[in-house]
Amino acid sequence: IFDTNKDHVIDKEEFRYCWQKWIKQVVRPVTALVIVDVQNDFISGSLALYNCPAGHHGEEVESFSSEGSTKTVNNSQVIPPINRMLDENRFDVVVYSLDWHPDNHVSFIDNVHMRPLHSSCKLTSEETQVYDTVIFDVNNDGTPMEQKLWPRHCVQNTWGAELHEDLKVAEDAILVYKGTDPDTDSYSVFWDNNKKFHTTLNEELQKRGVTDVFVCGVAYDVCVAATTKHAIEEGYRTILIDDGCRGVSEEDIMITREHITANQGLVVHSSQVKNLA
Ligand code: VGL
Ligand code: ZN
């Protein structure tokens, strides 16, 4: 714009013309909303309780029956802000990820006997409890692989793996399935936990020229955290929607927020996301 020889400095009119005709189109953001794992098992099913022990948690709901009252927790509070954003903010691209495990998946505690543990693992398979981390001996050749053990969840083609019925599904949405390999877990919607295999997400975003990735869903400090980390690494401007997430541990949620802001990402409230089109 400013000629170093100073024989031609553009004036305001010229700049306005350049902005309208060229620059604005080059810098126009192309936005994607990535809605992570808003599936029945994480909202009210087998992993809902785990997702919200305290703080930034799901709501406790008391239900009454002939046996008395039982308290359950659910994370459905993520749904209204997400639906509102889908209605009000015209994202160029909307992505729904689904944790989509086969029956014999490595992350299920009841499958722990199916694979050999590594010699460095301190627990035997009989001793393991849910949420323990074990070390498997991949291929039985001494290659260690850490794995956290979860309750059975999001089994392909079951109720627990379906998107919650109250969640709006945008037209032309992209669905990304992860955790489909029996021997590999995948928290991030971009990469598996060993960063060996990528999902279809990055190529779908690249095809559409996406520059800005907005992330929301569950669990804040597990799959949402891993996805935002990789979105930043892949070079997207990354914006996390704080009230559109529910998570496990208040401390890990704080660490997630700090990691994002320390790496040029943004953590915002859904009401701050405006006028994208
Ligand atoms: C998730 C645990 C296991 C998640 C997925 O979506 O956060 N957590 N698999
Ligand atoms: Zn899973």
Question: Care to give the gist of this entry?
Answer:
The protein is α/β, with parallel strands linked by helices.
What does this structure look like?
- This protein has 277 residues and is an alpha/beta fold.
- The protein is built from six helices and ten strands.
- The strands form three sheets. The chain has a six-stranded parallel sheet with strand order 7-4-1-8-9-10, sandwiched between helices.
- The protein is globular.
- The chain starts with 11 loop residues before the first helix and ends in a 9-residue tail after the last strand.
- Bound molecules: pyrazine-2-carboxylic acid (VGL) and zinc ion (ZN).
- The site of pyrazine-2-carboxylic acid has 9 residues, from helix 5.
Defining traits:
binds pyrazine-2-carboxylic acid; alpha/beta; 277 residues; 6 helices; binds zinc ion
